[in-house]
UniProtKB/TrEMBL annotation, chain A:
Domain ABC transmembrane type-1 residues, every copy: 83-272
Protein's membrane topology: Multi-pass membrane protein
Gene3D superfamilies attached to this UniProt entry: MetI-like
PANTHER family the record matches: PUTRESCINE TRANSPORT SYSTEM PERMEASE PROTEIN POTI
Record-level GO cellular component terms: plasma membrane
Lineage: Bacteria, Bacillati, Actinomycetota, Actinomycetes, Micrococcales
Entry's family note: Belongs to the binding-protein-dependent transport system permease family. CysTW subfamily.
Presence of keyword Cell membrane: yes
Protein's recorded name: Putative polyamine ABC-transporter integral membrane protein
From TrEMBL, chain B:
Region (Disordered): 1-22
Keyword Ribosomal protein: no
Protein name listed in UniProt: Putative polyamine ABC transporter permease protein
Organism this protein belongs to: Phycicoccus elongatus Lp2
Transmembrane segments: 28-52, 90-109, 121-141, 171-192, 265-294
Subcellular location: Cell membrane
GO cellular component, one term: plasma membrane
UniProtKB/TrEMBL annotation, chain C:
Gene3D superfamilies in the cross-refs: 2.40.50.100, P-loop containing nucleotide triphosphate hydrolases
InterPro entries: AAA+_ATPase (IPR003593), ABC_SmlMolc_Importer (IPR050093), ABC_transporter-like_ATP-bd (IPR003439), ABC_transporter-like_CS (IPR017871), Mo/tungstate-bd_C_term_dom (IPR008995), P-loop_NTPase (IPR027417), PotA-like (IPR005893), Transp-assoc_OB_typ2 (IPR013611)
Family matches, as NCBIfam families: potA (TIGR01187)
Protein name, per record: Spermidine/putrescine import ATP-binding protein PotA
The UniProt record lists the keyword Transport: yes
GO molecular function, one term: ATP binding
Domain ABC transporter: 14-242
Family in the record: Belongs to the ABC transporter superfamily. Spermidine/putrescine importer (TC 3.A.1.11.1) family.
SMART domains reported for this sequence: AAA
SUPFAM superfamilies per UniProt: MOP-like, P-loop containing nucleoside triphosphate hydrolases
Keywords from the named record: ATP-binding, Cell membrane, Membrane, Nucleotide-binding, Translocase, Transport
Domain of life per record: Bacteria
Cellular component terms per the entry's GO annotation: ATP-binding cassette (ABC) transporter complex
């Protein structure tokens, strides 16, 4: 097991050297693992400057690095259309999943009712089901069942599927936040003349909001990056991950690298910016 | 998987006061519950039922791609006899990937929880950030990194450490890809449980046992068990059902059950019942494993 | 009163009439009747689980009584919601809203009542608790003592008819607790509101309250001014919960003028008739440890006495506590003030006489329950 030794907190003199190593071991290992996590991202970035000929797999020293893919990110046919589709699906699925999941979380945490355990299981099992099974089951129902009511594979079937698997993650995130709230805060609000709706909007909701925002970010990234379920229910519709996968055999255009890396950079900037702002507000 | 999320409800109540939660009308609860539950019923439960009925369907003789309702258990028999090795590979690769992910994730989670100080938030963001570059793009990047003329393979070949001479199109590449792709799912729950653990208990452990490793084994690791449990499930389940890594990094000899399901659905005419039987079997195996695992390591926190 | 149509104005004494609160498996408050005069500082004292917090929550409206009525003046508040009552609470864990600044926390109540000058009122309340300089901070940036003051200000700003304090000082360290006790008492005198203070700390209750009610098993054992209650407990439970007592079970066998003569495990002791709540039959004899003197020789002319062997001597600064084993095998406790430069030099094993004025003794009904209390001393006195 390559797990770290924690420091002995008051090490006897003899153990100090070991403790020193153990201390550094965790940090060094952590930095290496982070490097490992970022290595492919680095590759994606580097190959966005590749002046490739047929396929963007090998580095072409002739004319590389080039900025031409960055100057024309929509240059490859279909790449920007798929990005727009993914963004639209991500936004719609996130909004719906956040609403449905937040309501569910409130019911599960704040209320006692018959069927509570069953509801918890209903929320948990989709997370414990492999994506391919979710995709396969949705495909069979969309093709053999819901097609009778006029639902064809495409944009909306992707949206419906994404809402489904995002709900569970929203419930888990919001539930955690709700459970960590001191129930006495609600009592204090009521004691201070707040009616139940006042209590909800002035106290409960603002305190749960960070959890809801986190759930929304999680939902969006899950939806945006989903490939397996999408590939089963998308029909002829193409999302960004599907675009990349399908074009893999012909050769992925470097524009996909440009877009993939930009999404990463934008998300990183947004999150860091957000945490700086919230950090400043706290101070 | 609220081990990811489980936070002790702020129970600081005086023992005299019973639960401050007033018994609310359950009608409101059902109203809150209804939309989400209906959605999960329509797009999760009913499709699963449909998947099950499809898995028992038979083909119309002479009309490929057309099926009739049946109780054709032979589909399951075929799933096992024809694709047994694929099931085996799925479980084996997912198990290996889970183990390697644990080995990589634990030091990182440990450093985040105990050593990172004010860098904690930044490290957390860094763990999640790669997600935003498409998972397919990153997997393709791994193919480039592990390629025969790439840095890893050439280095290992120079040192004569690579028996077959190559990594891509072998099981190693598939396991490496799976490990990489699901690593954050292992890091985050372990980090969450370590962070929640009472640091004073670990200090006390450090006082009781002079040996750092003993402290780790007897105090730190057990306290992070809920996170390890959640992390292994969150890694194993998607890894066992994955087909992208096997498709992009492996060869015909490393195909997993996901690849079979995908091709039976989309590339084999009349493959629906077999694919459905395979999917259903995979789900049953995984749910059974999850159940046994949770029973063995005992946690009610999972729900 | 914008958005608060149900708010009930009420002025006067707080009255609880035959209030009972039952939960599924036990009765937390059992047929409790109580009058708290307007403007008084009232303490509900009792061990955990005695029903004091449940009583408080019923007054606040956070729990509804199973039966009985709760009134302020002539207004019946039973069944009304917390936000409809002219009652505010200082919660045990303070329950400050973490997302609001200190000022917004304090202005929360006035704002909900639609008062235009909510912020001004909040600032005045913060002045009263001497925290105006922290108004813009978030609760997480305050120390425990400061949070406690904000919680007090947040409740006080509403000028409630009754202010409820649920173990408000429990989380503070001893020194800060003493300081806050004085502070709360000052505020109460200044604003003249009815304060109901729930605590399990008998010293705290006695320091602050005009009237103390001792609760046990959902009932009030004894109620009165702190001094009177300490001097003359009427139940064995109170004798031990409010201060310590040397107790012994016995029976009354005779009278001697205005005194009762009791035989307590073979010894004869006297109890003033006025100081005993039982006048015949079984009795629990008691005397406070600080009323008991320790002597090397058998003293004369003081009162009753008993011989014993010193088991433990602990020096506590202003006094020295002696634990003395009396012939029945029980341990008595006695405090001697350290008046002399060289105090009586006693060591464990020394034989001594314990003596007290019989006017200090008291008698309470026998109570099996008292045996569970830590300082109960089953004793036999020898003449």
């Amino acid at each position: 097991m390559s797990a770290p030794n924690p420091t002995a907190y008051r090490p006897s003199a003899g153990k100090r050297a070991g403790a020193w190593l153990a201390n550094r071991f965790a940090i060094i290992a952590a930095v290496l693992v982070l490097f490992y996590l970022f290595l492919p991202v680095l590759y994606v970035f580097i190959f966005s400057f590749n002046n490739y000929r047929k396929s963007n797999i090998a580095w072409n020293p002739n004319g590389s690095p080039t900025l031409k893919h960055w100057m024309d990110p929509c240059g490859a046919p279909g790449v920007c259309e798929s990005l727009v589709t993914s963004l639209q699906i991500g936004v719609i699925a996130t909004l719906a999943a956040v609403v449905l999941g937040t309501l569910l979380a409130f019911a599960l945490v704040r209320h006692q009712f018959r069927g509570r355990t069953a509801s918890n299981v209903l929320v948990f099992v989709p997370m414990a089901t492999p994506e391919i099974v979710l995709g396969a089951s949705l495909l069979t129902i969309f093709v053999q069942g819901f097609s009778n009511v006029g639902l064809r594979l495409g944009f909306w079937t992707i949206v419906f599927a994404h809402i489904m698997f995002c709900i569970s993650f929203v419930v888990v995130t919001v539930k955690a936040r709700l459970q960590s709230l001191d129930p006495r805060l609600d009592e204090a609000a009521m004691d201070l003349y707040a009616t139940p709706s006042n209590t909800f909007w002035k106290v409960t909701f603002p305190l749960v909001l960070p959890g809801i925002i986190g759930a929304a970010m999680l939902s969006f990234s899950l939806s945006f990056d989903d490939f397996i379920i999408t590939s089963f229910v998308s029909g002829n519709e193409t999302t960004f991950p599907k675009f990349v996968y399908v074009s893999y055999l012909r050769g992925i255009p470097a524009q996909a690298n440009v877009i993939g890396f930009s999404m990463f950079a934008i998300a990183l900037l947004l999150v860091i910016g957000g945490s700086i702002i919230s950090g400043r507000r706290k101070a | 998987m609220s081990t990811l999320a489980h936070v002790g409800a702020g129970a600081s109540g005086a023992p005299t006061s019973p639960s401050p939660e007033p018994a609310k009308k359950s009608r409101l609860a059902y109203l809150l519950l209804l939309p989400g539950a209906v959605w999960l019923l329509v797009f999760f439960v009913i499709p699963l039922v449909q998947l099950f009925t499809v898995s028992l369907q038979s083909q119309f003789p002479g009309y490929p791609g057309y099926y009739y309702r049946d109780v054709n258990v032979g589909n399951y028999w075929r799933a096992f006899t024809d694709f047994g090795p694929h099931f085996g590979r799925s479980l084996l690769f997912a198990g290996l990937a889970t183990f390697f992910a644990f080995c990589l994730a634990y030091p990182l989670a440990y450093a985040m929880a105990f050593k990172a100080g004010k860098w904690r938030g930044v490290m957390m963001i860094l763990v999640i950030a790669p997600f935003f570059t498409s998972f397919i793009l990153r997997t393709v990047a791994w193919r480039q990194i592990l390629a025969d003329e790439g840095p890893v393979a050439t280095t290992l070949n120079t040192l004569h450490l690579l028996p077959g001479g190559r990594i891509t199109e072998t099981w190693m590449a598939v396991v490496a890809g799976l490990t990489y792709n699901f690593l954050p799912f292992m890091v985050l729950p372990i980090y969450a449980s370590l962070e929640r653990a009472d640091h004073r208990i670990i200090e006390a452990g450090g006082d009781l046992y002079a040996n750092g490793f003993t402290t780790f084994r007897t105090v730190t690791l057990p306290m992070s068990m809920p996170g390890v449990l959640a992390g292994t499930l969150l890694t194993f389940i998607p890894a066992a059902g994955d087909y992208v890594n096997a498709e992009l990094l492996g060869s015909d000899n490393t195909k997993m059950v996901g690849n079979v399901i995908e091709s039976q659905f989309f590339r084999v005419l009349g493959g629906f019942p077999t694919a459905a039987a395979l999917s259903f079997t995979l789900m049953a195996i995984i749910l059974a494993l999850v159940f046994v695992y949770v029973r063995k390591f005992g946690t009610e926190e999972l729900l | 009163m914008a958005g608060n149509a149900g708010f009930r104005e009420a002025k006067g004494d707080l009255r609880l009439e035959n209030v009972t609160k039952s939960f599924a498996d036990f009765t937390a408050v059992d047929d409790l009747s109580l009058v708290v005069p307007r403007g008084s500082f009232f303490a509900l004292l009792g061990p955990s689980g005695c029903g004091k917090t449940t009583t408080l929550r019923m007054v606040a409206g956070l729990e509804q009584p199973t039966s009985g009525r709760i009134l302020i003046g002539d207004t019946d508040l039973t069944g009304s919601r917390p936000y409809e009552r002219p009652v505010n609470t200082v919660f045990q864990s303070y329950a400050l809203f973490p997302h609001l600044t200190v000022r917004d926390n304090v202005a929360f109540g006035p704002k909900r009542r639609g008062l235009k000058n909510a912020v001004q009122l909040a600032d005045e309340a913060l002045d009263l608790v001497q925290l105006p300089h922290l108004a813009a901070r978030k609760p997480a940036q305050l120390s425990g003592g400061q949070q406690q003051r904000v919680a007090v200000a947040r409740a006080l700003v509403n000028r409630p008819e009754v202010l409820l304090l649920d173990e408000p000082l429990g989380a503070l360290d001893l020194k800060l607790r003493r300081q806050m006790q004085v502070e709360l008492k000052r505020i109460q005198t200044e604003v003249g509101l009815t304060f109901i203070h729930v605590t399990h700390d008998q010293e705290e209750a006695m320091t602050m309250a005009d009237t103390v009610a001792v609760m046990n098993h959902g009932r009030i054992e004894q109620m009165g001014a702190p001094e009177a209650m300490y001097d003359l407990p009427t139940t064995a439970f109170v004798a031990n919960f409010v201060g310590q007592s040397n107790l012994g079970a016995g029976r009354i066998i005779d009278t001697d003028g205005d005194r009762l003569v009791a035989e307590v495990q073979g010894s004869r002791v006297k109890i003033p008739k006025a100081r005993s709540s039982v006048h015949s039959g079984e009795v629990m004899f008691g005397v406070r440890p600080e009323k008991v003197r320790v002597r090397r020789e058998q003293p004369e002319g003081i009162g009753d006495d008993v011989k014993g062997v010193v088991r433990d001597v602990s020096f506590i600064g202003v006094a020295t506590q002696y634990l003395v084993e009396v012939p029945s095998g029980a341990i008595w406790s006695a405090y001697e003030q350290n008046l002399d430069v060289e105090p009586i030099d006693l060591r464990p094993g020394d034989e001594v006489w314990l003596t007290w004025q019989s006017g200090h003794a008291f008698g309470v009904p026998p109570d099996d329950d008292a045996a569970a209390s830590p300082m109960v001393i089953d004793t036999a006195a020898e003449d």
